[in-house]
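#data-curation
PF: Archiving a pair of folding outputs for the training set. Convention for this channel: one message per protein, sequence first, structure tokens after, nothing in between. First:
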Amino acid sequence: MANPAAETVTPPFTGFNFAVEIAVPGVAQRLCHAAFSDCEGLEMTMEVKTLREGGNNGRQIRLAGPLSFGLVTLKRGMTRSFDLWNWMARAVSDPALRADAEIVLLAADGQAVNARFVLSRCLPARLKAPTLNARDGGVAIEELQLAYEALEVKPGDAGGVGAGAGLSVGVSLGGAAGASFGGFA
């Protein structure tokens, strides 16, 4: 007899197939051709405010506070492409320069898209040169940290449970946070 609970379980996405798309106006339409081996730091944290009501010692009230976003850390083997270094230099000379980026989570086949993490108004917060060691024959890995102002998660074209719904969270220049749920085309 088949287990009905097992039939409704959707397998989780794998984390080894992903692409990074970074577009920087005036530097590159597609920065370093998305050749990153590691990506971490896609996160948002809500500061929860706790209030105590006078005379009620058995309960506390929790209120939603402002959102903060993490720093995305991207690592790749250094190549002849100096797009990251050019972007950092341009960001230093033009502090208003921002990029838009997408971290695309691919299915195991490497073609179908499971999800897209859309990062708005990105700024290179840190660019680290590779560690050089003459005793080690390893690959020279450079590291980029991106600060971003908004994070939007969109479902991919791979289908599955929940396809067509997404979460968009952003912080406006004034610092107010907003979130919306809805369908995405």
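PF: Second:
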Amino acid sequence: MTRRTSIAALTLGLASLWSAPSPGAQMPVPILNEAGEEIVATFSIVGRDPATGELGVAVQSRAFRAGAVVSYAKAGVGAIATQAAANQTYGQRGLDLLELGLSPDEVVEHLTGSDPGRDRRQLAVIDDEGRVRAYTGSATSDWAGHIEGDNFSVQGNILAGEAVVKAMAEAFASSEGPLALRLMDALDAGEAAGGDARGKQAGGVLVVKPIGDSGRTTDRWVDVRVDDHAEPFRELRRLVNMSISRIHSREARALAAEGRFDEAVAAQREAIAIVPDEDQLIFGLARLHARAGDAEGAVAALQRAIEIDPRWRELAASQSDFDTIRENAAFQRLLSSR
């Protein structure tokens, strides 16, 4: 029999903790499905930011390219994680059902109800309203379970223990900032609590958002994966940070195009704060200062970029963005120095 356990002790207003039967601890060895493929034993989170309309999935696993297998999302519709003996048809089919107007409860019932392998599946669905439903099959490998919360669900199988999903839930519910960073915080918390009992290898973060008037041609705001790495968390965090910083930089360019240079500079500084040694972003800050006629700010940023990569000196000498400060003595000295 399955059992449902209250998690009021988390004091986070989380909905429920469902734990698969525990016939005894299992060795962290590869588990194969009926087709001889390795089960995606993992921990993941689906989440929503009601303020921005972002929806996302984040996953970590000892299974190769887990991010490509587990994660599905569509802006304005929902996000889905399918794992354990992962039925990948759950992903797109689930999104299609959400788009038709079915609730997450109905989607999970529809997907698992006709699946003879459902006892070996694990699934989480969140819709654009923040409603969630997770499912952990009774034959998933210990420890397996999930927590449903306000605008998120965390789930995992072959974990070090229940503490993994509890830590993930607490981290997400208490965090602030862009959804991608909050999802990454949840993964880090899960790993710190023991993570996948077999170790670590791969992961991914996918965040979608309505395109609106952003000028983008895809709803994938953040889409990064680490398919095989000795330190997947560190590498995934680096890629997520790069993605978020580039979102801020894109915003800076849009603001500058409207002549809102003070705001543009502030957005570019936010981008640099996330990845402080990214010389391309620092050079971009120099360009913004120059376009605004701020020679002192432009020279300071340009000098920093050149210290990281001297090739920016030649580019600054030829770029029209620096025409407004071309006669500035400090700028000329910086270009002539070697």
